[in-house]
Structure formats: C-alpha cells, structure tokens
Amino acid sequence: PLDKNEEGDEAVRRALENPERYVLKPQREGGGNNVYGEDIPGALEKMADNERSAWILMERIFPPLSQGYMVRPGGKMPPEIVNLVSELGIFGAIIGTKDKVVYNKQVGHMLRTKLSSANEGGVAAGLGALDSP
Prior knowledge:
Blueprint: H1 6-17, E1 22-26, E2 35-36, H2 40-46, E3 55-59, E4 66-68, E5 82-96, E6 101-115, E7 128-131
Antiparallel strand pairs: 1-2, 1-3, 4-5, 5-6, 6-7
C-alpha cells in the first residue's frame, strides 16, 4: 500500500522517477481503474494523503509478445496479424480444516489474450479474448 509512512513515501518516489515501470491499482474489485506509466505522476499529485492507503503500487510485468489474430464481430476481414500478450490463470480447489487438508487440486485454467498495446484487457469490456493454451 501507499500508506503515508516511510515505505509508502519511498514507493511514491520510485513511481515518480520511473513511472513507466509501474501500475497504480486501487484496492477494490473490477477493472478499468488502474493508472499506468505517464499518468501516474498526475494521479499521485492529485491524491490526498488519506487516500493513498487505498492504492497499491506494483511493478509492471512485461510478458513476451506473440503474434496472432484478434477476430471480432464486425472486425476487419481478413484480420491482420497483431502483437498479443496472454495471461494464464490456474484455478484450484482446497477443502480442509485448520489442521488437515482433505482436498487440494488444480481444477481448471483460463487463458486471456489482449493486444500488446492495451493496458487494460477485460474480456467483458471487449478489450481481450478468451483463448486456449
């Protein structure tokens, strides 16, 4: 968190020095609220001290690029080859008590793919696509 303390102040300093390396995320569910790169300094300058603890500063992950097609309803045909990034999510299930694990298994996966130029990649928002590994 960006709490108003020495650690939070250091995180703010790093973000202001190299904003392209970071993403500022609110501590709430839902997409589309993250602040990226060159937009971070302005967001931090407008943020009141008591608002800082509602945000987390994370180093950005720059995954390897792949090339492929994003086929969309009403999109260009034939689609052009574009640079993409993918994120693999593994789902698990665990059942147990405080003393014993009864069941702990990997039960599924999902691959989300988006244009490499897009910061946000919500499938429901039309910015990404479900894929298969």
